[in-house]
Amino acid sequence: MSIRQFTGKRLNEYAENYVVFDLETTGISAEEDSIIEISAIKVKGHEPVAEFNTLVNPGTHIPAGATNVNGITDDMVREAPGLREVLPDFLSFIEGEILVGHNIQSFDLLFLYRAAEELLEREVANDYVDTLFMAKACLPQLNRYRLTDISAFFHIDTDGAHRALNDCVMNQRCYEHMGKLHHNEEAEICPQCGGVLRRRNGKFGEFYGCTNFPQCRFTRNV
């Protein structure tokens, strides 16, 4: 299985039960870089009920660029377990749950798929909600859609951003806020990719365009 293949579906919904998760890594390449932190919060009935949180020893040097982003150093992970040790516990934690995360389709899930395949010869088949796409649909007034931007919009504390558990806490609260907005609107779904269609103005008048643009270029006349 290629790590670029998705076995779960991207959902566009406000789930009552889910696991929000986040990874910190040594870099941005899902094919070459390594996971150094895994965190998750299990939510039932819209309320957090359990946490998963661990540093991971990647068995390699953590580049300064990564440390500058997430603050994780070689010394911090020196006594931490390796990914082969912690991954089965994490997969058990998320088993059967909808996954929620920010930009997970293009980042976190790719790391997770690769790790599960290479270390355990397993697929990760969870359906998921990517809050990046949800934010673009619910909050068109924003200029940027980083997790910190969305948190600031909802007046959520962003202290400790870019550590995995802190990002999970922020994103869980953002998801609940956006979910309520989303729940009160009838979102139209893109027939090509499953994203949300948004009404836009173009050179030839109004039209519906996919919020996954430019990856998806589906349009429909108003």
Kindly report the spatial arrangement of strands forming the biggest sheet.
3-2-1-4-5
Mean pLDDT: 91
Secondary-structure content class: alpha+beta
- How is the biggest beta sheet arranged? 5 strands, mixed
Radius of gyration, Cα only, in angstroms? 18 Å
Number of helices: 7
**What fraction of residues sit in β-strands?**
15-25%
In one word, what is the shape? Answer: globular
The span between the termini is 40 Å
Helix content: 25-40%
Which regions contain 5 or more consecutive residues with pLDDT less than 50?
A: none
* Helix and strand run: EEEHHHEHEHHHEEEE
> What is the number of strand segments?
9
Primary descriptors:
222 residues; alpha+beta; 4-stranded antiparallel β-sheet; globular
Tell me the layout of helices and strands:
Blueprint: E1 18-25, E2 35-44, E3 47-55, H1 64-70, H2 74-77, H3 83-94, E4 99-101, H4 108-120, E5 128-130, H5 131-138, H6 147-153, H7 164-183, E6 188-189, E7 196-202, E8 205-210, E9 219-221
Parallel strand pairs: 1-4, 4-5
Antiparallel strand pairs: 1-2, 2-3, 6-7, 7-8, 8-9
Helix pairs in contact: 3-4, 5-7, 6-7
Structural notes for this entry:
By secondary structure, the chain is an alpha+beta fold. 32% of the residues lie in helices and 23% in strands. The strands form 2 sheets. A 5-stranded mixed sheet has the order 3-2-1-4-5, sandwiched between helices. It is globular and about 60 Å long.
Brief description of this entry?
Helices cover 32% and strands 23% of the residues. It has 222 residues and is of the alpha+beta class.
